[in-house]
Target: TnpV protein
Amino acid sequence: MEKYIYNEQNGLWYELQGDYYIPCLELPAEKEERHIGVWGQRHLRYIREHKRVFYTNLLTSGKLQSHLADIEEQAENMYNRLIEEMAERQGVTETLKAEQPMEWIGLMNNIQACAREVVNNELIYA
Model:
């Protein structure tokens, strides 16, 4: 039996695997490689576990990487903006950092945790 055969009816190549011919299929290539960081990885894990149809549609259409990169970019921008706004509203300044560094660290850790929670709820797990 031949290793590869071509079916003219559907235009697909088939490869012999054991006793069966399996179609030679591949996913469409992504247009560009973009960075996917911690936010994108969290979103990937979430959609893979909880939104399987959406995940499969993105994967088979070749749009998964660009979707994750978009989420990464949006989440990072939102996180940084929230930290700046919360720090300004709570009066966490460079002066406080110079005069009382331990208090500044505690306040900034709290602000970062709050911003992380907002980003997770609004973008990552939505």
User: Anything to note?
Assistant: The chain has a mean pLDDT of 92. Residues 35-124 form one domain. The radius of gyration is 24 Å. Strands lie at 4-7, 12-17, 20-23.
